[in-house]
Prior knowledge:
The chain is mostly helical. The chain has helices at 2-22, 27-52, 62-65, 77-95, 111-129, 146-151, 176-187, 193-205, 210-231, 233-239, 244-260, 263-278, 291-303, and strands at 99-100, 106-107, 141-142, 156-159, 164-167. Helices cover 62% and strands 4% of the residues.
Amino acid sequence: MVLLAIGGAVGWLVRVVAGVMVAKGRRRRVVAVVVARAASAAGLVYLAFLLLWGLNYHRPPLAVLTGLGQETTGVALGELEALCGELVSEANAARTAVAEDAGGVSRLAGGVPATLVRATAAVRGASERYAVVRGPFATPKPVLFSTGLSYLGLSGIYMPFTAEANVNAILPDSQVPFTACHELAHQGGIAPEDEANFVAWAACIRHPHPDFRYSGALNAALYAVNALALADRQRALRVARWSPDVRRDLDALTAWNRRYQGPAERASRAVNDAYLKTQGVDEGVRSYGRMVDLLILERRARTGRPEGSRPR
């Protein structure tokens, strides 16, 4: 459908240009009609987007709907460091039970197709814990042109017009479960990226299979450690005590990212940033990292009062 849409748009543009070229003496009128029709079509598409899914951006925050709390003002560095330590330990522990390839990098049980099927059950489990995440959920689809998606810097994409969760099929294995659950969270009505990340973590961390628990803990730990590094780099370096197995996976992830970096990725990031801001997400692509705020609230709900006294 995407390829047909692109082909149709190119064909329409060629037809418009040809029409303008032959419309001698009335080109302004032809151009005005074309612009009006294009604006009308764009408006209808955007209206369909809003009615089918886009209004989810304007729901109350997930933290409020789940009873986790309102906000995370006054977070102490000690509290954030403690969260990082827990997540790093969980990732190291889960990694010990995950299979490896010949290079010592983590490998998914059953490969990507089986993992996508298991992701559906994982998010159903998260929906039982957080009723705001509503199904039914359909199995995520591996993107046929995953190489192109990689050059765009995208690990997955949710298609609101068809309610399909799509996953980059050539991601490093450590990223697939978390990404699949993230896209399924969108399918379940969770629009903000940080909230979809949190649901993905909640789905993965309670999964019976270690590759899911590892993917959830690893990605949450990376977000949390990066947040700590912005405030205190030395603390972040001390707490990021990755096991040798995890370090191999992180090296593989870094190499994968470098392989596909370039102008297409930067342009795609700018488009995604602009899209999120048009939906009321003022932080744009930086909002992905706000997942850490939800992790802090969840940890407080589990352990009681926040630690430390120095505000973030």
